Amino acid sequence: MANWDPVPGVSSSAPWMTAINACAPINLARILGSPVTREATMTRIEVLRSALLGVLACFVADQAFANPCPPGNPPTNCAPPTGAILDLAGTPVPHQYTQYDVNFIATSTTTNISFAFREDPSFLFLDDVSVATGGGPNLLVNGGFESGPEGSPEPQGWTYLNSFGATFGGEVEGSDPHSGNNAYADGAVQAYDGITQAIATTPGSVYTITFWLNDHSSLTTFRQLSDNGDVTGIGGNGIDLLVYAGAVPTVTTPEPATLLLLGTGIAAIGLSRRRKSR
Ligand SMILES: [Ca+2]
Predict the structure, then answer these.
(1) What are the angstrom distances between the C-alpha of 65 and each of 16, 253, 254?
(2) Which residues have beta carbons under 5 A from ligand 1 (an ion)?
(3) Domain ranges of the chain
(4) What's the 201 CA to ligand 1 centre distance in angstroms?
(5) Where are the alpha helices (DSSP H) in the chain?
(6) How does pLDDT run across 23-36, given as a tens digit for each residue?
(7) Is 165 left (phi over 0), alpha (psi -120 to 50) or beta?
């Protein structure tokens, strides 16, 4: 899979779906089915007006949840999927390898460990990822990226995610490792890409995810979105890393007509972007 779609048999926990489902279909037959009198007609008009306002509100909410960034197009300042157990936004950007960790309690016999990355001007380097419980062994395959393959966006044992179609996405690099020869370098521009790996877990047990991270830009603070006015290219200042444990994180997909409109409007973006150096 090359997107944020959930793996088969694992339910999505995307909270925006719950919100959209609250906009249940309005039963027009019930509204229009009462006897015809002047009073009833006025009531019907009022109810219909409320219903239409409700539909409009749901449509607007749907658009808001859909994000201005349709997957598969040149992205423009896209937010990450929700549901992260760790979001570095608001914390200092490390310019030498720094260790991070986060715990989670398993709720299923299979847990997807996922990382989402964005780094507009340069690249984040991830290495020595581990998931363990009770002092046990690393449950991840190729957590240090030493199995490569070098140059591939999809490290052995992992699945690559990039439904936004972000450029300068991650790949296994034979440079600036924390240990060994390889690291995972990711410079996704104006949107998030990611990697995910499923591990077997025991519901109720506590697991610790640890990893090492280094950044090659001069940015000082992680932030989910670019707030310096550049929402199309590597001049943005969006930089973040998020960790997920559970279902593979997902993003919503707007209607094809919306995709077409947005795609037409931003088709030229990205072609003039300068090359990033690692
Ligand atoms: Ca390594």
Answers:
(1) 6, 10, 10
(2) 127, 144-145, 177, 180, 182
(3) 1-254
(4) 24
(5) 15-21, 28-32, 38-66, 256-265
(6) 333 333 333 334 44
(7) left
Cα(271) to ligand 1 centroid in Å equals 33
User: Are 179 and 196 contacting, i.e. CB atoms less than 8 angstroms apart?
Assistant: no
Torsion of CA 37, 42, 43, 47, to 10 degrees: 130
| Pairing between β-strand 171-173 and β-strand 183-186 as defined by DSSP bridges | antiparallel
**Which residues on adjacent β-strands are paired with residue 242?**
87, 116
- What are the tens digits of pLDDT across the range 53-76? 444 443 333 333 335 688 778 899
Residue 181 CA, ligand 1 centroid: distance in Å = 5
Ligand 1 centroid to Cα of residue 158, in Å, is 15
For ligand 1, the distance from its centroid to the CA atom of residue 108, given in whole angstroms, is 29
Q: Which of 110, 138, 153 is nearest to 247 (CA)?
A: 110
